[in-house]
Design brief:
This protein is an alpha/beta fold. It is about 15% helix and about 25% strand. It is built from three helices and twelve strands; from the N terminus they run ββαβββββββββααβ. Strand 2, helix 1 (about 35-50) and strand 3 form a beta-alpha-beta unit. The termini are far apart.
C-alpha cells in the first residue's frame, strides 16, 4: 500500500502488515461520516506519530476544530467545507481549503497560513497574533477583531471579495485588506462601523471608502510608496497562492485606514 492510498472510512490502514503504522510523507483520509473528534484525533496521530508532512482530507462536511493547536510544519488540504474554529490556536501548519469555510477561522492563531479558495463567514482571525489568512471570496461580520502584533510578529488577513460590518473592530495590530476583485459586484466593499475601536495596525481597501462607514477612532491617510513595497510583498504571495493576477490587483488605488487614537476609550477609565 503506497503513501497515496485512500484511507477508507477515515481509518488509517497499517502499512507494514503487522498492524503498526509507519512513517509516511503523505496521507489521504476520507472524512465522510466521521465525527469531528475522531477526525481530529486521526489528524494529530498522522502528524505526531507518523510524522506526516502532508494530509489530504476528503469529503469534509462541517467537522470543527481542524488544525487547532497544531505546532508542526505540515500541510493540510481540505476538500469540502470545514466547520467552525478552523486553525484556532494554530502555530505553524499550512491549511488549504478547496471550498468555503465557516465561522472563526484562525481564532487566536499564532503562526502558519490558511488559504480559503471560496468564501468564509464571521469572526475570522479573532485575536489573531501571527500568520496569514488568505480568502479568495467574501467574508462576513467582525473580521479581524482584536488582532494584535508583537515586534516582528505581524498577522495578515486578506479578503478578495467583500466584508461585512465591524471589520477590524478593536484591532490592535496587524494588517487587514479587502480587495473587491469582482468588478461586476456592485455591493459596498465593506459594511458599517469600519475600524470601530481600532487602536493599532492598518486596514487597506482596494478602492474608495465612504467615510460615513468609518468608526470615529480611525481616519484615512495617504497610501505611500513604502506601503506599496511592504504590502505589495504580501499581496504577491496572496496572488500566487490563489492563482490570481498580481498586476491586476495592483492596478487600482488603495485606501489606507489607520487609528487616530491609541487609547480610544481612555477617558472612560480616567477620573
Amino acid at each position: 500500500m503506497d503513501a497515496d492510498t485512500l484511507i477508507e472510512s477515515g481509518r488509517i490502514e497499517p502499512d507494514n502488515g503487522k498492524g503498526k503504522m509507519e512513517k509516511r510523507e503523505k496521507i489521504v483520509i476520507d472524512a465522510k461520516g466521521i465525527y469531528y473528534r475522531e477526525l481530529n484525533e486521526k489528524i494529530r496521530d498522522a502528524i505526531y506519530n507518523l510524522k506526516c508532512k502532508e494530509i489530504h482530507l476528503n469529503n469534509v462536511n462541517g467537522q470543527r476544530y481542524i488544525g487547532d493547536g497544531i505546532e508542526a510544519k505540515v500541510t493540510i488540504v481540505i476538500n469540502g467545507v470545514p466547520g467552525n474554529d478552523l486553525a484556532a490556536f494554530m502555530n505553524g501548519p499550512t491549511i488549504i481549503v478547496n471550498d468555503n469555510a465557516q465561522d472563526a477561522v484562525g481564532n487566536t492563531m499564532n503562526n502558519g497560513k490558511v488559504i480559503v479558495k471560496g468564501h468564509s463567514s464571521d469572526v475570522i482571525g479573532y485575536g489573531m497574533r501571527g500568520g496569514k489568512i488568505f480568502i479568495k471570496g467574501d467574508v462576513g461580520y467582525r473580521v479581524g477583531i482584536h488582532m494584535k502584533a508583537y515586534k516582528n510578529t505581524v498577522p495578515y488577513i486578506i479578503c478578495g471579495g467583500r466584508a461585512g460590518d465591524f471589520l477590524g473592530e478593536y484591532m490592535a495590530g496587524g494588517v487587514l485588506a479587502v480587495l473587491g476583485l469582482d468588478e461586476n459586484d456592485n455591493r459596498p466593499l465593506t459594511g458599517d462601523y469600519l475600524g470601530t475601536g481600532m487602536h493599532g495596525g492598518v486596514i487597506y481597501i482596494r478602492g474608495e471608502v465612504d467615510e460615513r462607514t468609518l468608526g470615529k477612532e480611525v481616519g484615512i491617510v495617504d497610501f505611500t510608496e513604502k506601503d506599496m513595497q511592504e504590502f505589495g510583498k504580501i499581496l504577491k504571495e496572496y496572488a500566487d497562492d490563489l492563482d490570481l493576477d498580481f498586476d491586476e490587483i495592483m492596478s487600482k488605488p488603495f485606501t489606507k485606514i489607520v487609528p487616530i487614537s491609541h487609547r480610544p476609550y481612555g477617558k472612560l477609565y480616567s477620573y
